[in-house]
Amino acid sequence: MIVVDSSVWIDFFNGKRTSQTDWLDSALGNTPILMGDLILAEVLQGFQSERDFRIAGDLLSRLPFMPMVGQALALESALNYRFLRKKGVTLRKTIDVMIGTFCIHHRFPLLHDDRDFDPMAKILGLEVL
Q1: How far is CA 83 from CA 55, 77, 105, 120, in A?
Q2: What is the pTM of this model?
Q3: In sequence order, which residues have a C-beta less than 8 Å from that of residue 65 and are 6 or more positions away?
Q4: Each residue of 65-122: pLDDT tens digit?
Q5: Which residues is 128 bridged to in the sheet?
Q6: CA–CA separation, 35 vs 129, rounded Å?
Q7: What is the CATH number of domain 2-124?
Q8: How far apart are CA 104 and CA 76, in angstroms?
Q9: Fewer CB within 10 Å: N-end or C-end of the chain?
Q10: How far apart are CA 9 and CA 16, in angstroms?
Q11: At a CB cut-off of 8 Å and minimum separation 6, what does 13 contact?
């Protein structure tokens, strides 16, 4: 199971070609991709057109789904954020810490295009594609 961050989904839906969106395009229908609530909200909130929102929502709702944050993972995310900050790394978005922590906890690799995940990979062992 692979988690695809909203940074890749947003580029994918905007038609931006990157190595990550190319991987996603070839993986859809062939590789199990897990959708989480945090990523779903981040992706869908950006659509301006009702039609595009419905099309994307339909596609994303077909993927296996897991809630990403409960009490235990919220605490684990806070600990990871604090640990990184003590190492001199301050991440820009709390939601990225939560997504990264979810992936670390469940040992799911993450496909992303967001620099916030780089120190999580280097220091916390987040597996990235």
Answers
A1: 40, 10, 16, 10
A2: 0.94
A3: 34, 35, 36, 37, 40
A4: 999 999 999 999 999 999 999 999 999 999 999 999 999 999 999 999 999 999 999 9
A5: 110
A6: 16
A7: 3.40.50.1010
A8: 10
A9: N
A10: 10
A11: 43, 47, 52, 56
